[in-house]
């Protein structure tokens, strides 16, 4: 479900997907996987939980547990995409990738340009699903972690081999460099009343 309408929830565990503009592999081109981790760090600093993720060359899938928030989840994701766009654009400028910067400029709508936007590094909407059952959560975990294996040109042979993924946290292998909270540890946390 592509989202331009407001998500009608203020808390919960969500399967979130956002994609680079026109599926251009901007995370790979600019080696800006760390910008996603910075966004995750921001979310965690506000009392939310990163439960699972995969950062692909041109899109991100994540399970994120949002504690009750006054700010809409749409706004939170939009702000994160804006922050990542700045980082991507700065790296393109540093590497003198003028053609790609011009392409990202051409994706900006007239209305956004009038509001001062200069580059569009992400598709304007994002996909989301509220995770309300263990079976659905498990399905999304499998989907997230198998993404690099099922990619058009597989990026690894086993999910836990892909470096930009939480797969190792779920298969009992050594944990990866980015700390998450297992979604199974969330089952007894009331996100409506949780305070960090």
Structure description:
There is one protein chain. With 196 residues, this protein is an alpha+beta fold. It has one domain (11-186): Alpha-Beta Plaits (2-Layer Sandwich), CATH 3.30.70.1290. Helices cover 38% and strands 15% of the residues. The protein contains seven helices and five strands, in the order E-E-H-H-E-E-H-H-H-E-H-H. It has a five-stranded antiparallel β-sheet, sandwiched between helices. A hairpin with a 3-residue loop joins strand 3 and strand 4 (59-66). Helix 2 runs antiparallel to helix 3 (73-94). The two termini are 31 Å apart.
Layout of secondary structure:
Elements: E1 2-3, E2 12-19, H1 26-29, H2 33-45, E3 49-55, E4 59-66, H3 73-94, H4 98-106, H5 110-114, E5 126-130, H6 134-150, H7 167-170
Antiparallel strand pairs: 1-5, 2-4, 2-5, 3-4
Helix pairs in contact: 2-3
Task: Work out the helix count.
Answer: 7
- Please state the CA-atom Rg, rounded to the nearest Å: 17 Å
Give the class-level CATH name. Alpha Beta
* Morphology call: globular
The multimeric state of the shown protein is: single chain
Give the full name of the CATH homologous superfamily: Transposase IS200-like
Rounded mean pLDDT is: 93
Number of strands: 5
How many structural domains can be distinguished in the coordinates?
1
CATH structural architecture: 2-Layer Sandwich
Strand order of the largest sheet: 1-5-2-4-3
Distance between the termini: 31 Å
Structural class: alpha+beta
Beta-strand share of residues: 15-25%
**Secondary-structure element pattern, one letter each:** EEHHEEHHHEHH
């Amino acid at each position: 479900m592509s989202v331009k309408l407001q998500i009608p929830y203020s808390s919960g565990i969500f399967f979130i997907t956002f994609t680079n503009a026109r599926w251009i592999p901007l995370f790979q081109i600019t080696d800006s996987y760390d910008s996603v981790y910075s966004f995750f760090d921001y979310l965690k600093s506000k009392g939310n939980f990163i439960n699972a993720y995969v950062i692909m060359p041109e899109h991100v899938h994540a399970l994120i547990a949002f504690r009750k928030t006054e700010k809409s989840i749409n706004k939170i994701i939009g702000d994160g995409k804006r922050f990542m766009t700045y980082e991507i654009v700065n790296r393109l400028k540093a590497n003198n990738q003028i053609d790609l910067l011009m392409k990202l400029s051409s994706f900006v709508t007239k209305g956004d340009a009038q509001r001062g936007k200069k580059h569009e590094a992400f598709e304007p909407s994002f996909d989301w699903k509220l995770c309300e059952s263990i079976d659905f959560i498990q399905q999304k975990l499998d989907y997230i972690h198998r993404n690099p294996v099922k990619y058009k040109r597989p990026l690894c042979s086993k999910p836990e081999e892909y470096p930009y993924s939480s797969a190792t946290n779920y298969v009992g292998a050594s944990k990866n460099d980015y700390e998450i909270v297992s979604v199974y540890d969330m089952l007894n946390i009331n996100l409506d009343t949780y305070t960090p």
